[in-house]
Protein 1
Amino acid sequence: MDEKHIRILRDLGFDDISEKNMTNKYWKSRGADALALTTQDRDVYGCVDHTRGEGVRIFDVEGTEYLDVTGGVAVRAFGLRYKPYLDFQESIIDVVHELPGMDFDAIPQTLLAEKVASITPGNHKKRVVFTTSGGRAVEGCMKSAMDLSGRRRFVAFRPAFHGRTGYALALTSSNSKHKSGFPQGVDVIRIAYPYCYRCPYGQDVEDCNLECVEHLRYALQVEGDDIAAFVMEALSGEGGLIVPPAKAVQGFYELAKEVGAYFMSDEVQAGMGRTGKWCAIENHGVVPDYVSMGKAIGGGYPMGASIGPAPMFTGGSRHSETFSAEPKMGLLSLWILKHIEDGGYLKKNAEHGAYFLKLLNELKDKHQVVGDVRGMGLMMGIEFVKDKKSKEKAPKLRNAIVKNAVQKQQLWVLGAGQNVMRLTPSYVITKENIDEAVDRIDKAIKESV
Ligand SMILES: Cc1ncc(COP(=O)(O)O)c(C=O)c1O
């Protein structure tokens, strides 16, 4: 960190900060003492330098450079400090920032609502509520579905991740650490996510009769079908980067319609063009009633959107959020959407994702411990197993590979699920970066088995 930025921290009242204490050990220890929670492992990651970084290059406070394939868990559509984005930010420096939306009309939020509605599937009349997180975007949709249907129960999947608060947590089931000890906010019928590599019904892809859909049909018959909405990730992110077959997603959609329930696609991680379509659910040929967006829509700022069928709520004041769609954030989101469009990023993401997956498949052929690789566009996973035949999950090995990748290969990468490595790079990743990333993963595997 340069002198200027150390000075800024000192001017903010922290006289103890100097170049001397710019070490990962110091800041991880100070962070552990001050912060109640962190979802990531301090044993693996350094303390990121908030003053450096470019594109897919991220730095820790000791100056170590990493190749970032997390995209900030799908937050940084255009990577770190993307010049055209910074220029746009500069150009709107004088807009009034302290005008959060929802209580009053303001132009940016209206234009953004129009835009967001236009890039979600279906020509039906939609309405939009802006939020400050993905979990709240999910909850906005859930509240609307309950309000419009008069029903209170949901169908959700295992694994699934929809957020860590209230109603969203009630849908989540990707890690018991998120759940145990907390009450169930809403009633959920939970069903296995269509996970063909480990089909819970013991079927092969070729013999599949959509047992997962039939199982849910049975559950609805015996548990009741007064369901407000089926909530599904078009591909499971946090749960382990699982890509469901389109026919299963279509089957669930049709079942939702049979019982008069809404179908909701949680696009917080997979949406915003990441998979090569604006919404990942489009890859399955399904038009959802509700869409929740987050992460990349804010370009690094806290922003989310609940999109649902008009009128979305039965009356005024049924739902709102103080800080949603603040004008600067609204303008930045509009810029991001336009740039995804103008820059042809839907096509680029599909192409780069296919190239990435091709190289990952080569890794699969090469390593006994790579059980499966899968993905859609720039959202991919590598599933680690003890051996290909038994398919026994190898969570410790996955952890060792992630640790080696970060600490030895300088690849900034995350896990997902119990034994999967998650790859959700920024859209500015190049083929050269992808070659480099796969080479580093290859080395991390070799050094960890
Ligand atoms: C699919 C999905 N839904 C919801 C969320 C929750 O978003 P947030 O952490 O912004 O509340 C996430 C976060 O990872 C997610 O991946």
Protein 2
Amino acid sequence: MTKNIIKFLQKVGSILSLLLLILALTSTSWAINTDIVTNSDGIYQYRTIHNSEGIGKFYLGREIAKVMGHEGAGWLERDSRSYQEKPQNAINNLELKSTDIVADIGAGTGYFTFRISPLVPEGKVLAIDIQPEMLELINFVNHEENITNVETILGDLDNPKIPPSSVDIALLVDTYHEFEYPREMMLGIVEGLKPGGRVVLLEYRSENPMIMIKGLHKMSEKQVKKEMEAVGLVWQDTRDFLPQQHFLVFKKPDISL
Ligand SMILES: C[S@@+](CC[C@H](N)C(=O)[O-])C[C@H]1O[C@@H](n2cnc3c(N)ncnc32)[C@H](O)[C@@H]1O
């Protein structure tokens, strides 16, 4: 009798183990299959397993970084930035004309906006950001210093809200890698550029592991080119004169030529 009970329990045990094994195997393959999901238009992919600095959304093989919150405004204004990143050299290389209309996209605290505005006295700077708290800082400085050629624009995640064909140069400093909708944003920027207008991107160089910036907040020249060419921009130049960032120049083709 006891022997029969033991045999019965052994049988039940093996059946249970088999069931558990099947469950484990099917759930693993289900997890692998569902880890990569492509959205209906095929532009973006989403992964549940991803870098903690990113949002789990991928564009042309790159994971999009989390947006730097307005709480980090002090970091953008740090004194050491002037010698660590040499922003003045970057601004000199923009080769601005006094009449230029410049869009500073992802303007943050206006670190670049307010260094550029005196150089375009007959033009203006459109300071665009998605965080109203950042634009409030810019509006405060505008008011305090009586600056008349800086306009703030509250953009959408997928739309910079630049009037069509209105801008000579779109500047994106340490910003592009954070765009949640990079393709839509860049198409909006291209539309906002005058024919022949330029896009200048500054991105920390991911080719150099000695640049101590989080991985998803750096980009390679190759990846930037791939993503800009995908929206019809034409690469002009990559100048690596800055200590940590690529300085990449692209042009909107002038189809009237
Ligand atoms: C790292 S900060 C850089 C700020 C500034 N360019 C600088 O170098 O001091 C990136 C900024 O991009 C903004 N940003 C992120 N996604 C954006 C979008 N889709 N449109 C406009 N701004 C965006 C963020 O709100 C943030 O202020």
